[in-house]
Design a protein that fits this description.
single chain; 73% helix
Length: 135
């Protein structure tokens, strides 16, 4: 690749992944914030975890949206790890339970949460890798 003004511009792929990553992190925040309001706040450990996930996902979305190119791989990787951790917690709570709480796939927004968190992991992971290699 030739260095120059065009080499410094964001590719359309990076822009699309960035926008999708922000949208997916916002989705994680909205889902967890909504569920927290619907009664998850009253569950020991899980309630505060949902509130924390909401705040971290909002912060992650902001970081991915505004990060300068040199910091974008780090912001995207952090977002991907947040989505992966949230997805792991969802699956653990559904299979073996988590902090004494057992979830079910029939729970409100369970499937939406699964797909948003899985997609966030993939999209933000791809963004982190793509932008790290383009530096």
């Amino acid at each position: 690749m030739v260095a120059g003004p065009t080499a410094r511009r964001s590719s359309p792929t990076v822009l699309v992944l960035r926008i999708l990553g922000v949208a997916l992190l916002l989705g994680v925040a909205v889902i967890h914030g909504y569920l927290w309001q619907q009664g998850y706040r009253d569950i020991d450990v899980i309630g505060p975890a949902f509130a924390l996930d909401t705040v971290l996902a909002l912060g992650g979305a902001l970081a991915v949206a505004v990060a300068p190119r040199r910091l974008l791989p780090w912001a995207a990787a952090a977002g991907a790890l947040l989505c992966l951790g949230t997805l792991a917690a969802l699956l653990l709570s559904t299979t073996v339970g988590l902090f004494g709480f057992q979830e079910t796939t029939a729970a409100q927004l369970w499937w939406e949460s699964l797909w948003v968190e899985a997609a966030g992991t993939v999209v933000l992971g791809a963004l982190a890798v793509l932008t790290a290699h383009r530096r």
